[in-house]
Amino acid sequence: MLLSSRSELRTLLIFAAVVLMMPIWLLPLGAAYPDLLQKFAIFGIFVIGYNLFFGLTGYLSFGHATFLGVGSYAAVWCFKLLTVNVLPAIVFGILVSGFFAAVIGFICLRRSGIYFSILTLALAQMCYSLAYSVLTPITNGETSLQMEAHDARLLDSWIAPHVGDGLPITHLFGIPMSGYPGFYFCAVILIISFWFSIRIFNSPFGLQLRAIKSNQERMQYSGYNTRIYLFSAFLISGMYAGLAGSLMAAIDPLAGAERMQWTASGEVVLMTILGGVGTLIGPMLGVGVIKYFENIFSSYNHDALLESFSFLPQPLAEALTFVVSPFVGEGWHLTLGILFMLVVIFLPGGIMEGVDRIRARFSRHKQPQQTEQTT
């Protein structure tokens, strides 16, 4: 246990250092601006929670974006009714998302395999349709829910009744949730969320979830009520998604039904598979790859490519621009699709499998050298 705790602490410290120094080491890659860093942190929380359920139990959910959207809606309503301080909004978003996760999990976990996946997809689309049309008085439909100048904000009006009539900005006890302060707030929550996921992975509860993934029938024959463990994991995963949705609203105080669409659920599945299902770090590598492609590769156009190849002779630069241009800019999905296909074919365990193979190869090279030195 002592060795395990030391390993967990070392992993947590390395992860915290990497996350907190993202504005520095992402600068050469052109991805150090606050908006993108906030996306890395928020979707990292989202995918950590999803991996706790899908990675440990093997149950594939296509409806987790529902909890992301519910968390955003709950946070914005907290901003409108109570206060623009983000702390109550985050707590409220987690609780409301947890309630939705409990209801959906109670229904869907009566089935397993593809039937469970279809149920989650169907309920997610039902929630999306309700938010988009039927529940317009609550969600504001296609125009999205956002703060307005005449909102009640009861706590703020009670604490500071003479504040101006303009639209306030979200804050954490006076610290604005924009720019780098917003990123570091999300980064701290990401680190805490990662620590909690480590504890779950290495706990008896995490071991039981892995046993369900390995052979659920044998677990049931051994006397375990597997549905309780699955329900608990689904609830925790949904609350993680609600936390991510609340942070989205804290950084940009609006909530739209598009966050609940099935494509958003599919995106978190791709992130998890691309990075490595059931690993601690892998899904966050998937977040980094997909969000980097979405925000950096998509910004390259013909002129930007031509400028990048300007050090080459003009005919060669134009030829390379012609070859590369279909894979960047609006064609970034093509590049991501090719990358995903290659990973699935050659690295079924995701990017982390490639990292493990490289690590194993280096360790094999070092071992003969050490034996030679000892002889």
Give the neighbour order of strands across the main sheet. 1-4
Structural shape: globular
Main beta sheet: strand number and arrangement?
2 strands, antiparallel
- How much of the sequence lies in strands comes to under 5%
Number of domains: 2
The end-to-end distance, rounded to whole angstroms, is 35 Å
Coarse structural class: mainly alpha
Number of beta strands:
4
Radius of gyration: 23 Å
Any overview of this molecule?
Helix content is 72%, strand content 2%. It is mainly α and 375 residues long. The chain folds into two domains: 10-22 and 30-261, no CATH class; 296-375, no CATH class. The strands form two sheets. It has a two-stranded antiparallel sheet with strand order 1-4. Strand 2 (171-172) and strand 3 (175-176) form a beta hairpin. The longest helix has 26 residues, at 226-251. The two termini are 35 Å apart. The model has no long low-confidence stretch (mean pLDDT 89).
What's the layout of helices and strands?
Elements: H1 2-20, H2 22-25, H3 34-57, H4 65-81, H5 86-108, H6 113-134, H7 136-139, E1 145-146, H8 154-159, E2 171-172, E3 175-176, H9 179-201, H10 204-221, H11 226-251, E4 254-255, H12 262-275, H13 282-295, H14 302-308, H15 314-324, H16 332-346, H17 351-374
Antiparallel strand pairs: 1-4, 2-3
What labels would you give this structure?
375 residues; mainly alpha; 2 domains; two-stranded antiparallel ribbon; two-stranded antiparallel sheet; 72% helix; 2% strand; globular
